Fold these 3 entries.
Entry 1:
Amino acid sequence: MATVAEKKILLCQPRGFCAGVERAVQIIDELVRRSGETVYVRKEVVHNRVVVDEFRRRGVIFVDDVEDAPESSLLVFSAHGIAPEVRARAEKRDQRTIDAVCPLVVKVHREVSRFVGEGYHVLLIGHAGHEEVDGTMGHAGGHVTLIQNEAEAESYQNTSGKALALVSQTTLAVSEVQRVIDVLQRRFPGIHLPAKSDICYATENRQVAVRAMAPSCDAILVIGSNNSSNSRSLRDAAGEGGRPAYLIDDPAMIQPVWLAGVTTLGVTAGASTPETLVADVIERVRQLDPAFVTVEPVGTGEPAMTFRPPRELAELLPPA
């Protein structure tokens, strides 16, 4: 650990926006700048208060469901994905829709549809009420059971008469998902798993990086909103070794007592957190304790990844 005279902030790499969030944010930014009309978004485009509030400031209207936006309006589906029946209701209202769903979530939707088509009953590891889970379950036509934790995995009884297949929410903690998988594989040895983990590459990379950084820290700030599943999972990963780990999405949330006795402070950010918020948090830490002079990046970046914008974006926008 650093001495008191060497107080420093370790800035975890990778952190912040993933390719799916970047794509969703760019879609709405393009529409706001170029469409010339009000942009409606079903649910929060990504689970980050700062991002959503900035779009509200620019005139974007966030609605709970398609019926809350006018007929024939311009409507964006959030990065978390939707059930097919949501799209069908929007079509009935003649709404011009643009899909900002993360391609990695679309991958899970396709897995579910394929498993159901092959005669499986699908077990989905995820959190009830999360928008991604609601959307994924909507692709299963009722042939799905949500498993939220190890206890539910232990108590689940397969009354479907079908073979079982397994998928997961993309933003969970890797260790959390693996514990549930271990229970299900023990109880149902023939359960069919996806060829590749459903956990988002960015979620996993950020968890691996913060676990590597944590032993060098006295405390860790995880920047992300509380309704962000990947940010909560990142906070849990940061605190696995017993060090204090705090989830914040506003620099004002930082309590001076959190910095008491801390000489090395770790900082990381969830996959839906803009880098501007990271800079604001560092500035606030320095206001509370000017001894935090040094900011030292730790870890390595992840390979650049980009997702192409949806075809309908170009179709709806005037020529640049």
Note: The domain at 104-187 is CATH 3.40.1010.20 (Cobalt-precorrin-4 Transmethylase; domain 1).
Entry 2:
Amino acid sequence: MRLKNKVAIVTGGASGFGAGIVRKFVAEGAQVIVADLNLEAALDIAAAAGPAARALRVDVASATDVRLMMEAAELHFGRLDILVNNAGVGHLPQPLEGLPEDDFDRITAVNMKAIYLAMREVVPRFKAQKSGVVLNMASTAGVSPRPRLAWYNASKGWVITATRSSAVELAPFGIRVNALNPVAGETPLLKTFMGEDTPEMRAKFLSTIPIGRFSTPEDLGNAACFLCSDEASMITGVCMEVDGGRCI
């Protein structure tokens, strides 16, 4: 019960790493808003988690939706302690000059602007209560970028810098900000990163991970739980690799 009496929002909580974080948070005693553009999937995750979870349809790139998401947490659970900015999108591997502008705009909106919008809403709340934890989902792509994913890599490098900058600025207010850097996992984005999901492509990808497997939702849930718990009260500005040694 490391998160007992804590209230959390997890964006992109209906699938992949987000769903793993939701399940772990609930198991550790938290109450959770499962925020996702896919309401049906969010409802399924919330139903499986039980009364401690509530589903909410949220477009994280919409200022109005983000504001209502914060208000929903306070309305349903009375407060907010933890914000997990997990929602993210990628693009198919391609030459950097070939990415369509609409795809670039979507990446910047979901991977970058959404964090800005969420921080703009949550920081005044956390400052007022002199406590709070923000956890951003970055990526090994922001540390050790792979070719043909230039703009996705860049967006995750932005998340890492935003995390470290925010941590320094907000520490005096009792607010911690950290990030996770997963390697690719069994999530909806896996096929996007690889370009095609074949045994040969998986073997090639796995050959770059010393532990020899992909990140799982459970891996990210466990790491997120630690960084968002009081056990990590001295940890801020950390971008923790959960990558089986990929970035060494």
Note: Residues 101-129 form the longest helix (29 residues).
Entry 3:
Amino acid sequence: MSATAIRARLRALTGAVAVGVTLVMAVQGTAHASVSSTPDKTVGLSGPAIFDLTVLDSGRIIVGGSFTKIGSYPRSNVGAILPTGKADPTFAPSTNGEVRAVAASDDGSRVFIGGTFTEVNGEPRHNLAAVDAVTGALIDTWRADTTGTVPTVKSLDVQGNRLYVGGKFAGIDGATKQKLAAVDVTTGNLVAWNTWINGNVNEVRVSPDGATVWVGGSFTRIRGLDRDYFGGIDAATGLPTSFVRAPSGGYVITVAVNADGSRVYATTENNTIFAYQPTVSDAPIWERKLGGNTHAMAISPTEIYVGGHFGGATPYLASLDTATGVPTSWDPKATGLKGGTWSLVIKDDSLHAGGQFTHFDGVQQRLYARFAGTPTP
């Protein structure tokens, strides 16, 4: 996004009135062009929802959720979409429960899935598994089952040879390790990482340099130190960083980190998005309240695309200026089931969305959508 003209003050004021934003520090945004508000024509899915997705370097999109078909191909909660937008006829793993999280190894050879299942491709796997990225075949040598009372894997993120796992569980890979763990990408063995969290982890996101693991959820302490619902953890020591957020807004739903790691965003149960610059201050740069919870965020140099079950002028999908939190004019006019949008990923020249939407501006596009533009993070 090469435009550099300063956004007019009038637009900032009218945007704040329309959606409701609290600016903690007055910072003007930068003019830019959003991705197209009309999604590409791509395959639709049958079922309630896509909960997460990842885009491989090849352009293939791996989706996980609760669904039964991608196009005409039967698929049980996990599948793939080709760069052309058509269903991938080859990638066909299956689970007997929802897939809530999807991630890929750095080399793109394997895909990790997490959720609330006990079988993958008919073989025992409890809430976490690795499959071949091309065929979907279960990787037999990789196993890191989770245990507990109704255990659930809610979030996955890969950094180098570590797969970070967040959720609601009491044990993983045969060891007592609650809520958050690191697992070896190649072997599936638990990585020795001395950290501890006293509540569920809803999202785990690693800084681009791999040094800090950002987590959000319903916890209040990390390694015995007060960290209400959101915090950074040293990837080497497992100790929380010095960043201490004020416990405003309730538990954290999702977390995002920008491309250089300088800013971190968190959304909370009271429908608010908070933007932080942790090395500068514990106080938010800005905060914005929407008409419903935000489940997903994707960050470009000038915009933060947000998805959730909020309503208002731009339901389920919206775009905010990264510097100010002021809404842009981008509006794909999404409609569908109440859950709205659950996952957003920027990859190269497109924004990918997954959720429970069914139409955009009256045109059917079920559960997955791709918006072309220039949003490279």
Note: Helices lie at 9-19.
